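Complex record, four chains
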Amino acid sequence: MKDRLTERQNEGYEFIRSHMRRERRPPTLREIGEALGIRSTNGVSKLLDVLEEKGYVEREPHAARGLRLVEEERAPLASGGGAPDLPLVSRTPSDQPDELRRRPRSYLAVDPRFLRKADDPRACLLARAGDDGMSSDGIRKGDLLVVEEQRANALDNGDMAAFLVGEELRARRFYYANGTMHLRSADSHYTEETYPPGAAGCHPVGRVLGLFRTF
Amino acid sequence: MKDRLTERQNEGYEFIRSHMRRERRPPTLREIGEALGIRSTNGVSKLLDVLEEKGYVEREPHAARGLRLVEEERAPLASGGGAPDLPLVSRTPSDQPDELRRRPRSYLAVDPRFLRKADDPRACLLARAGDDGMSSDGIRKGDLLVVEEQRANALDNGDMAAFLVGEELRARRFYYANGTMHLRSADSHYTEETYPPGAAGCHPVGRVLGLFRTF
DNA sequence: GCCTTGGGTGAAAACATGTTCACCACCAGA
DNA sequence: TCTGGTGGTGAACATGTTTTCACCCAAGGC
């Protein structure tokens, strides 16, 4: 699978590796050439062709610095490849749910173990709870909710779910009965809300898998 | 030194950060523009000018992908800006607090932003709350607490702190008065506990910085 | 002698990427 | 009312970077 490298090829590979650690980006052909004493970018390009054939690097055609080390890709954790980034969504009005993943406020690394209940980790996102309606269930305003996006009909009665109501994100228990969605709060100060499916004022985002809070 | 960013500027910064983690190389102006919905490379360039002025990034003129994150430069480990792993400690008796970091049950990746209030991220660990004494404050039995190890005399009155009591880990408000430690619960069903410093039955672990919960 | 492989040179062409210039709109504060 | 900061558009331009093409040399195997 992975052929052995000649001495010269290994020099090239090692330079690329060290360059990526130092600079946090791949070298250009010229940079490689300069380091190895190769005056022609074509000479370098051929060297990379060999490294690619032998399975040590991958190249993205025509891209500047379009070089990746195969080894580091798979590195389980060696360099932080382990935890996927989830987008922390910014405030979104409930009548424009498509905006949810646009312009995320930031990305946070989340250990895959927190997503083990998700059908699809890529459907997961982070959103801030906008009210205290579930504080009796231990969810407080400002908590970061881990939400797996789901359509309402994929939710089961009693699921902890997240909804956009106006511009606010609310965690509630979800119930579906008599053709309406019921959003049940855990807090007696909050009343149960009901919406017809597809109501502009309330968009079901998905199931709540977990939460993060900082003090 | 480091000025605050506007929301829009933060979107740009966060995209760059996440792109570098995913791709192991900085984005081009056009890649940034595409992600943020900016059609002119000049618009992106001006955004980067601001990020540079405010001390978040550095630019290498004329270089392709000539972008570096100031923050990640100083990152202690070569983990490429990846999330550090915190040990999830296993059950430890309060009279053997040194065992706390021995044989951790597992390690979980935790985004550095969850540790921003820590003096020393390496002093942080994860532990499961063993009772419901703080449920009125939103901490429930089984929650994963992010704890920065600290000696009791580094704690301030009113801090949310973690204690080993017997073999159980408890979150409580910490108060020190009249030569005794007071562990105040948020829940009226629990009574306040007091211990002399150094009591074998109660070992202060540190300050609680945050919590993780999965449903 | 002839072919293959590894390892090149040099230059032009094609494409990717950053820079500059002219211009626009909104908003908050002096 | 003016000014400066923020956040852009669009196009031309200059530079960086990779590709392609033609050609070279030495060593080893047949």
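Note: Helices of chain A lie at 7-23, 29-36, 41-53, 70-74.
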